[in-house]
Specification:
It is a single chain. The chain has four helices and six strands, in the order E-E-E-H-E-H-E-H-E-H. It is α/β, with parallel strands linked by helices. Strands 1-2-3-4-5-6 form a six-stranded mixed β-sheet, with helices on both faces. Helix 1 runs parallel beside helix 2.
Amino acid sequence: MSEIETTDAFTIERRGELTIVSANPALETVGSDIESIAAELIVKPLKEEVEPVVLFDLSQVTYFGSVFLAIMIRCWKIVLAKSGTMALAGVSAQARELLHLTSLDQSWPMYDTRREAINALLAD
């Protein structure tokens, strides 16, 4: 059974041990106010998980700003501390360039599709 929470900027779906954060097109235009919402809806629940498995599905956005990148990094730090796994799916060429410039493309596995990422994450 899944639990789904939605904001204009992203949708969070929890399927057992897997948390899927899907970026919505509105994410491209949000400001820094999204950080407090994300902290409550994404970061806080991850802190309670034993070994979090997180997928950021970016297939609906072309790019994202530093605020959302900071949210992903916060999640990644929690995931690492708890020996979990985090991956990205549907990353655009523009977003890949940002991830390359920050060297995060070396840290986060990237998959072409959401389905491919889910299969890989749940196979571990």
